[in-house]
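input
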Amino acid sequence: MREIVFVGLGLNDEKGISLRGLEEIKNAKNIFIELYTNLMPNFSLKNLEFISGKQPYILSRRELEEEEGKIILDAAERGRTVFLVPGDPLIATTHISLRLEAKKRKIKTRIVHGTSVISAIIGQTGLHNYKFGKTVTIPLQGNFSETPYKVIIQNKKSGLHTLCLLDINAKTQQFLSINEALRTLLDIEQKSKQQAATLDTFAIGVARIGSSSQFLKADNIVNLLKIDFGGPPQSLIFPGDLHFMETEALIAFAQAPQNIKEHKQ
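output
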């Protein structure tokens, strides 16, 4: 069967894959995996091979992006092919281009969803999903951009929350920490002075969601800067207007100070 099945690995480790996803691996002729778009802190390829009985081919960024996934497409021409992706396939990745190319070649595609870090972060904090505005990625140091700061401002004007994903380079094991991201935003604030990220700004630091060591802390930036959030992956949320239930959730689940009550930006 000429087919590519995009299978989500979920968060943290190989146990995050669904039973349906595991079944797809066992029934596939070709299995590919990419591990560069996100860091899964406790993922073991050996354990995945053990539970699935298959040995996936590890794809490089070059094979997927520069060569436009030709290796997967060619394999799918010969039989059912599974493509394993961290998190939920096609969420916060560029793999939609691969699916579009498969469509051009008349190769069938299906998606077996996994847990997305985006929905997991929102769920863990207790914030309301429908109150989030545009999501943005803060790049690693050396790739400076004012875009995240501008997105925070844009969302705040509408009273909306901003999820800031912090950049990673899985190949070199580099990751942007919450503290580094906050300092970058504070530097932009000094020039722009639009009150998007001051020392008094309320924010939420999130680390390793979905793992046994996940950590959430909501507080003013001046206090967040004093915290060691540990290893990756990490993210930030800048709340807009908070509903009283969201405030209660942040106090209960993200160690927010009791005096935040109904927070207004």
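quick obs: The longest strand covers residues 3-8.
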